[in-house]
Amino acid sequence: TTYRIFVNTWNVNAGTPTDGNVSDLVDLSQDHDKIDIYIFGFQELVPLTTGQVLNADQSRGKAWEDCLCNLINQARRTSKAVFVRSEQLVGVMLAVFVRADLVNNNVIRDVKTTHIKVGVGGLAGNKGAVATRIKTVSY
């Protein structure tokens, strides 16, 4: 089975979805009904302050997830996409959306995300990475 995956990454410079034209993230010129999986990466999601490094504001990630889900589904005509999972490490975030029928029929399943801190001997999230794993079933 072949899946069409849309991947985009963006440095948001601690901005929110309302700070600019976020429709560029989804590239409305494409036929989104052919896309099965969306993966968005963000950098500088929050201001890099000591407080954020120790306890990052997760609400910013949620705002981006909601905005992207709305944008994706505005671009789709025949089927919807659903938010599946995200992972945030301070200012870095990865968000995964999948065509709803693939999730509902258990074709895309067991989506896992994780992060690793490597700043200050593994204690701080100012350096590190986020990752995802997606299992698929072929029929």
Can you tell me about this structure?
The protein is α+β, with helices and mostly antiparallel strands. The chain has three helices and six strands. It has helices at residues 50-54, 59-75, 100-104, and strands spanning 5-11, 37-43, 81-89, 92-99, 108-119, 124-136. The strands form two sheets. It has a four-stranded mixed β-sheet. It has a two-stranded antiparallel sheet with strand order 5-6. The longest helix is centred in the middle third of the chain and has 17 residues, at 59-75. The model has no long low-confidence stretch (mean pLDDT 86).
Quick one: how many beta strands? 6
Range of helix content: 10-25%
Strand order of the largest sheet: 1-2-4-3
SS content category? alpha+beta
The major β-sheet equals: 4 strands, mixed
Give the low-pLDDT segments: none
The shape, in one word, is globular
- What is the radius of gyration computed over CA atoms, rounded to a whole number of angstroms? 16 Å
The pLDDT mean sits at 86
Strand content: 35-45%
> How far apart lie the N and C ends?
8 Å
What is the H/E string? EEHHEEHEE
DSSP summary: helix tally: 3
